[in-house]
Amino acid sequence: MKNFKAIVDVGLKPTIKDIKAITLADAVEQITDVKNFHCKLQNRYILEFSAQNRDTAQKTVQLIAEEILANSVIEEYEIHWVDLNE
Amino acid sequence: MSSINAGIITFLGTNCEQDTRRACELFGWRAEYIWQDERINKKYDVIFLPGGFSYGDHISSGRIAKLAPAVQSLPVGETLIVGICNGFQILCEAKLLSGALTYNENLKFISRVVPLEFLGEVIHIPVAHHQGNYISCENMSEEVILRYTENINGSDERIAGIYNREKKIISMMPHPERAVYSELGLTDGRKIFEFIENEI
Fold first, then answer.
1. What is the pLDDT of residues B103-129, one digit of tens each?
2. Measured between CB atoms, does A73 come within 8 Å of chain B?
3. Which of B88, B98, B142, B135 shows the shortest CA–CA distance to A74?
4. Domain limits at A78?
5. What is the ipTM of this complex?
6. How many domains does chain A have?
7. Most CB atoms within 10 A, among A31, A64, B32, B120?
């Protein structure tokens, strides 16, 4: 078994109104002089586990992301792998 | 005495199962609870997924409860299934209904009686939710059966409740089970239960 670490970032799809991001942008424009401020909110999940190989690990993280961490109707996700051998 | 048998699935964090049961019993239905970890093998006339905060709404409302054996073994298309509030969220998360429920437009928990369009009339039923903002999908196969008369939470087209006739699934964010006893001041929820009874 090998050890793996993956970071999964989940946020709303661009077509879905990101109400929290809009609230943040309004607040930023109240306290700064910046214009056209845009932001995107995401939840970050850090997953550490052991698996037989990288292929199994990738399939596992994809399954977790699609079934538990994100709702594909309104959310999208990105997976970033951390090399534990560094 | 009605011969209707109702099953009410309870999850860790469900809090409306007793109200749902009492509403069923008001109509003379027999009602019993189904624990989340049980697979549904028994024949019911209607199965409710009641309101509450299953698994504390962790990750997102209904996200974990959809994995429960009771949900995975729902007799879709055979028995009428009714999701109320958290039940609606669970059924959407399980992809048994199209669309998704996300945070209310004002980011606040909304708990109040709201006017709704239902079968050509306006009825009043309580809502109590944080994630009741319904995002619909293109070409949704569900029929809208309940619609807020005004923008309550940001839902697309003011959708409050939908019905997939093929799958025999009715779901809504309002709580009709909280509006059946005149002692509590509201009885319009009876109209929803009458509708459910007719659809069984």
1. 999 999 999 999 999 999 999 999 999
2. yes
3. B135
4. 2-82
5. 0.87
6. 1
7. A64
